[in-house]
Amino acid sequence: MWLSTSNGLCKVTLIPGNKSYSFQLENFDETDGLQGREFNVNAALKTHKGELIFGGAHGFNMFDPLSIHPNINDPKLIFTDFQLFNKSIAANEIFSGHVILSKAISATHEITLNHSENVFTIEFASLNYLNPNKIAYQYMMEGFDKGWRTADNATRKATYTNLDGGTYIFKVRALNADGVGRPAYAAFKINVLPPFWKAPLAYVIYLILLVGILLFIRQRGIQKIRKQFAAEKEKQESRLLIEQERQEVKRMHELDQLKIKFLTNVSHEFRTPLSLIIAPVDKMLTRADQEQKQQLNMIGKNARRLLNLVNQLLDFRKMEVQELKLHSKPGDIVKFIKEISLSFTDIAEEKEIGFIFDTAVDSLFTSFDHDKIERILFNLISNAFKFTQAGGHVSVLLSVAKDSQPGSEGLIEIRVIDTGIGIPFEKQDKIFERFFQNDIPASMINQGSGIGLAITREFVKMHGGEISIESEPDHGSCFIIKLPFVIYDTPGQGLSSHDNADIEKEDLLASDEIKNVPKQQHANKKPTVLLVEDNDDFRFYLKDNLKDIFFIIEASNGKDGWQKALSQHPDIIVSDISMPEMTGIELCKKLKSDKRTSHIPVILLTALTGEADQLKGLEIGANDYMTKPFNFEILLSKIKNLLVLRDTYKRTYKKQMDVQLQEAPLQNEDEKLLRSIVEYIELNIVNENLSVEELSRQMNMSRGSLYNKVLMLTGKSPVEFIRSIRLKKAVYLLENSQMTISQICYEVGFNTPKYFTKLFKDEYNILPSAYTSSIRQKKNLTANKE
Fold it and tell me: Which ranges carry the Histidine kinase domain (predicted)?
């Protein structure tokens, strides 16, 4: 079938297949002898001889379709040009130091290129001049291309870049306009030389180096094994000895730890008896005559001296485990040092030793650790008096000097000078070492433990200062302390609210409200204090001093304390920590996690002075923490503070209920419990038979526990609390609904309007009907104003 188109004549040949047909299309144009590419519409005719006539704009064509045969001329190919970097290479032309083409490209069968000559172009052409524009060219670089590529028959060239080193064969073939061409192709070989590091010689060198390295490593390994084998015998011989020494060291270390632990435990045990000495003595001093005061002062002084020794032992333990920390607070350091120094006046008079305190500045407000500075001065001054004979002199001199260290405004220099026995020069470097003891005359029997100066130096270092000594035997000693400081303009500068609460014990004594213990529901009822203490003497001492103000309940261990807290519902609990069966920490955790007792304030008493122990107690919910020995007046003030705070919470909860408790944010277990109670009452407010028993079951509490909890939080019994919720709901309905008073009465759970009216008037001092009228009048006035 022949078709005339705007682009020439098209011959369509139908080719039958197995199950379908395919079409072969062959196009003819003016290069094949046509008058032109375009033909007129309907200008076609087939003659009786079978000839076809097609008319166009430039005439017509008439031909016999049977005489049209494919072109069987075989196009012959030749290579016409070879270019490197877009530059044609001629025969015998030198390029980059060597000849690439020894003869013309058309006669060349092989080319060798360096690895740097990596951009080249090959041009080719056909020697068939019959319709050359219809000749199709295909090429392929064997070893690089995966298939034949079609070339542009106008340019007839192929370009390649960055070929790896190796041998390639470039092939090209051509097809004439009728698709006839040789199955063979024109080709020539291209050799691309690899770079020098990929050359065969390079790989040989690499192999030699690798073998050499492996041999070297093997030789070193053999030498190492020989040395190890030689040393193994020596190790085996000494291994048993080393293991024995290690076990001995381990045993000695464990023994040292046991000794230190025993020493620490004994020191802690000293604190409770000391509390039972110091506290009663302080109380007796307030009622003793002058003669008794002298004896009591001597008892108190020696008890505190013993306490200081106990504290030194505990500080030594903390130094061993690196638990010492600095707790700086602002204060007048000059006044503080003066007070500590002048407290030795009695000792000076008793030993007939002259004592002088002199300062170059009257006051200096800065930040320092009060406890550690006191311990530093106590150790140095007490040593000065200890090693000075009667008739000698002890001086404490205070001055201020400049400091070149950044962040410091100066140095406080403290000199503790005595005319005692002195220290030999060769031993002055050792006196600050632990357990060092100097040789002293036989007349001085108070040798000391040898850890006081070691602790003193550690405390000075913690302040960023330094301590030194100037001494000469039989002429006395001078200890020099230099502490950097930053000046505070006012005594209160740098104080946080937490610091202000802890500086002086007077800060614990609150205003006039604190002095009066909170009144209970019944005027004659004292607040109840539960004392949990395993030491009978100490428990008796606390009870004896608290019984005039509080009703006291006693428990000898944590387990007994827990049972009495559940049964007696005390107002506050004072508990020791170290107790049998259940510790104070375990008791506090149990109290704070149980909804029946979580509201009870807890004060923990302990001989443990570590911050980790205090933090552990406070983290589980303890309200306060005191270390033994302590001032009883401070304990009493803390008990009163917590009772006042509890009473404040009670008023706060009650006030929140008067406003809108359901919108209050949840902050603790007490508020969550109160919210749950309110929600349950509101959900069952229509139920006139809602009882305290049902409410306690829903809250998973006994009736007694619920009664005490609600009374503590709101100041009302559960029945009164349920009634107040009903009345508040009634007020809301009176203000915001059109319901009658009788309807509201039943809606909020009252069984008769008369009873509802009575309770409403008792609570709000107005009848429900009058309250409704007043609300309507207010609304009318508001509407008239608008």
Answer: 265-487
